[in-house]
Amino acid sequence: MPRNKTDNFIKAIKKYAKAQKNAMESEVKQLKTERLQEAEEQARRDSERMKKEMLAEKRSRQTAQLAAKTQEGQRKLFTARAAMTEEVFRLATEKLHAYVASDAYAAKLQSSAQAVAALFGSKDCVLYVAARDLAAAEALQACFSGKTEVRADKTIQIGGIRGYCPQMGIIADETLDAKLEAQREWFVENAALSVL
Fold this sequence. Notes:
This protein is of the alpha+beta class. It has helices at 2-100, 103-120, 137-141, 176-190; strands at residues 125-129, 148-152, 160-165, 170-175. Strands 2-1-3-4 form a 4-stranded mixed sheet.
């Protein structure tokens, strides 16, 4: 009988050991599954983070390239518009020089002098003209009731007159140069230049 007790004891120990082994194997298996899931989840998060970082980096590069191309395009557009504007005003200047050489210019110079004379009344003044217009000095002075001196002004490149009345502190600019320049700003704002 002692043998039977020993056998039962050994069987009980083996059974307990087997149950412990099965429990440990089950626990190890569950632990492996959990760790594997954790590793997969971590790998997925890392992969998503890397994708986002790569996408953000790519977007950043593309945005910088787009900004550079936009800036270059705007620079080219500005340069082309400026060249167009300069060409328009160069042609206008040529036409004004041709006008100054015409007979109609003498009448215009006279009417400009009359407009300035009306502004200054009988007060003394100085008239500035292009050097080539000094020949018309007497006719221009005849428009004024006050004492009028006519002087050449190198800044008047195209033509017309600029009157100055020291008593009134007024300058009346009837030069074609000033009128053309006044049109430049209007032209730039309103010409709706587009470069195709």
